[in-house]
Amino acid sequence: MALRQAIRRRGAFLRPAFWKPRFSASCASVSPCSASSCCSSASSSCSARTEPSSFMMASNSFPAASTLDTNPEHNPNHSDATASSLGWPSPAATAADRAVKEGARNDWSREEIQAIYDSPLLDLIYHGAQVHRHAHKFREVQQCTLLSIKTGGCSEDCAYCPQSSRYKTDVKAQKLLSPDVVLEAARKAKEAGSTRFCMGTAWRDSIGRKTNFNQILEYVKEIRGMGMEVCCTLGMLEKQQAEALKEAGLTAYNHNLDTSREYYPKIITTRTYDERLQTLQFVRDAGISVCSGGIIGLGEAAEDRVGLLHTLATLPQHPESVPINALLAVKGTPLENQKPVEIWEMVRMIATARIVMPKSMVRLSAGRVRFSVPEQALCFMAGANSIFTGEKLLTTPNNDFNADQEMFKLLGLIPKAPNFDQGTCSCNSEEEHSEHVVAAQ
Ligand code: SF4
């Protein structure tokens, strides 16, 4: 008898998170309580504790931390102290719950993001998925094709990059690709299912490159005319250049922060972190979507990965796209001997990015070629919803196109349609948007 009671009590305590009431007396809607304050406040008004329904389990609204049965009145064995000694709910659960209820926020402390990042991995993945499904159509994955239109011979010293003229690598400097080559590549990418075409140049900036810059403006117009989103990564921009790109129809501009502010000088010395942020601001001001993320595996510590996410997640507006790259160490670069990034590091980074920037497209970028389909599936589960397709990522190899199509079929993923709302912000209201605009000025 005593044993049976103990099992019953323990069973209640160990009840999985999704075992929550289908509807409570105070939740009038069909919603499975995720937005209701009655459960989140562990209120005793919730009287309808039932078993999980198939509706709840199939719903896009995953249960949140606040729906965990931590109410002592429902479970006399439970106490806050017991829960916290088990690390439950985890910081990932708590932050995901808040993201689902309140949407994107940009007042993160670094400690908060570190705690999410350090949450137990499976919990982090689960809650990354929760936020992902709330903010996005979880089957949709954006396919972008990246073409290096001006390869090699770059004056910068990015320690990971084979295109820097400072390192002896196999990459040969080339001139800007001609219109027929670029436009044909864009057409092929479109035929293959890509909705975004990105063009990269190995430049510090485009100052003094008027002819080439004007040529790129033409590429942007032409490719936009094909019905594709167009993205460029041309190094640092001036305000007027950002405006000209916007005028030409550019959808997004990529300029990665690479790593944390603290670790950055160990990777690049030829331009500053603040210069990078300034370019992002010009892009934002011009009304172009911001694409900015970083690279893991540069020899940085976990705190630097958190620092990168903290900088991105506390920008007045989150970047619309956040590429997460795993270093592909290239012979001849200072980082040639870095050990490959483990899938678990990638998944942890993606899930944390998803929770702290719920509405951004989180892109599983360079390094994907090293991950198996099951490993990539974990990344999609954790919240990634964008990939690069095509033979190469600038100069490094990328996944086989047919293999990607097979993977989509296998995992039930579908290509995301293009979105031409340039610079669409992730604010939750007009009021919030006005505050961001003021903060950015
Ligand atoms: S990452 Fe870009 S800026 Fe840095 S060396 Fe390579 S091409 Fe140049």
Supply Rg: 23 Å
Into how many domains do the coordinates divide?
A: 2
Q: What structural class do helix, strand and pairing data support? A: alpha/beta
Strand tally, please? 12
Largest sheet: 10 strands, parallel
Unreliable segments (pLDDT under 50, ≥5 consecutive)? 1-78, 422-430, 436-441
What CATH first level of the largest domain would be assigned? Answer: Alpha Beta
What is the annotated CATH architecture of the largest domain?
A: Alpha-Beta Barrel
Principal-axis shape:
globular
CATH fold naming of the largest domain: TIM Barrel
- Helical amount: 40-55%
Q: What is the percentage of strand-forming residues?
A: 5-15%
Distance between the termini: 69 Å
User: Which molecules are bound besides the chains?
Assistant: iron/sulfur cluster
- The SSE string, one letter per element, is HHHHHHHEHEHEHEHHEEHEHEHEEEHEH
Task: Describe this protein with a few key phrases.
single chain, 441 residues, alpha/beta, TIM Barrel, ten-stranded parallel beta sheet, two-stranded antiparallel sheet, 40% helix, disordered N terminus, disordered C terminus, binds iron/sulfur cluster
Give a verbal description of the structure.
- The chain has 17 helices and 12 strands.
- The N and C termini lie far apart (69 Å).
- With 441 residues, it is of the alpha/beta class.
- Strands 1, 2, 3, 4, 5, 6, 7, 8, 9 and 12 form a 10-stranded parallel beta sheet that branches.
- Residues 1-78, 422-430 and 436-441 have low confidence and may be disordered.
- It has 2 domains: 2-89, no CATH class; 140-440, Alpha-Beta Barrel (TIM Barrel), CATH 3.20.20.
- Helix 15 links the parallel strand 8 and strand 9 (386-389).
- Helix 5 (91-102) crosses helix 6.
- The longest helix is centred in the middle third of the chain and has 16 residues, at 210-225.
- The protein has helices at 2-13, 37-40, 54-58, 80-85, 91-102, 110-117, 121-135, 179-191, 210-225, 239-248, 264-267, 273-286, 302-313, 343-356, 373-382, 401-411, 430-440; strands spanning 140-150, 196-201, 229-233, 252-254, 289-291, 294-296, 321-326, 361-364, 386-389, 392-393, 396-397, 414-415.
- The radius of gyration is 23 Å and the shape is globular.
- The structure holds iron/sulfur cluster.
